[in-house]
């Protein structure tokens, strides 16, 4: 059986941050800049508090069956919640979006390469 790669985004909004928490997040903002966002196994957090209080965690996971994406999404949500809760950051409106890369449409270059090798 082949391994499927899943990309999961968990989005939400920081809620009821104290002045200290806000300052802490602003100080760490360069390492959480959206321009450096990446899908990683441990999850990468990005936000821009100067623009709005929204955040996005990006996770990379894998499974063998199409249904495994549900468990991967659950793991990503739990990891995001744990990260926020462990640091005492309030949040709301948590939602997830997952993509199975084996089901993603090919880009032009990938289609061209597939046609020349097939």
How would you describe the overall organization of this protein?
The chain has 118 residues and is an alpha+beta fold. 33% of the residues lie in helices and 30% in strands. It is built from three helices and four strands. The protein has helices at residues 19-28, 68-86, 108-117; strands spanning 4-14, 44-47, 54-63, 91-100. The chain has a four-stranded antiparallel beta sheet with strand order 2-3-1-4, with helices on one face. The longest helix is centred in the middle third of the chain and has 19 residues, at 68-86. The two termini are 22 Å apart.
Short summary:
By secondary structure, this protein is α+β, with helices and mostly antiparallel strands. Helices cover 33% and strands 30% of the residues.
Order of helices and strands: EHEEHEH
Helix content: 25-40%
Q: How far is it from the N-terminal to the C-terminal residue, by CA?
A: 22 Å
Strand count, sense and barrel status of the largest sheet are:
4 strands, antiparallel
Class by SSE composition: alpha+beta
| Low-pLDDT runs | none
Gross morphology is: elongated
Keywords summarizing the entry:
118 residues; 4 strands; alpha+beta; 4-stranded antiparallel beta sheet; single chain; 3 helices
